[in-house]
Predict the structure.
Amino acid sequence: MMKWVCALLLLGAAGAVSAQSADDERGFYVGGSAGVASYPDNPKIIFRDLTLRSTDTRAEDFSWGVTAGYRFSRHFALEAGYVDLGAGTTKLIDVGGTDFRGDFRFGVHGPTVAAVVLFPLGPNWEMYLKGGAIYQDVKARLNWTQAGEDWTLGATAEHVMKPFIEGGVSYRFDSHWKVGLGLTAYRHIGTNGSTGKVNMRSTLLSFTYQF
């Protein structure tokens, strides 16, 4: 998907001729997106006095989001939204050689706020750069078997703002509708004291309607 993002950015730059007027761009908009969230491929987890290694990881999951915002000018907008980044799962064993066997799940969703800087490339194309924060709601769960007994442990990280940055390109195919392709990077999702932290990314296809 990253190759497609780069290709669309180059295509938009090559076709740049003139920008739409600022008056045409001002106004409220709403949008929706869907894509793939990517979690770490081979997570290393420290649990109690054990160092756990991944043996089978599902590092990608379906993600979706909605946004609503206001575009103040040709180059700037503010927006709020909600995103669900699905969950990453992995099977774990203890590298120390004990009989520990476990399954770990790490899921993320929550509201977002962001500032958007836009770079019109022509009558239909534009690039954008978005910086903001997710008001994270993280749920982690570890199910494991050790010494013939089954155990479950859950942890949450809620109401903590974590940063993200997104870049992409969009194409306006009429006076109201745009389609976009972007890549979002999330930093330090979760907390050290409970769920642990991950860096992750999401590739997304979006549709936006401007009133």
In short: Helices lie at 2-14, 22-25.
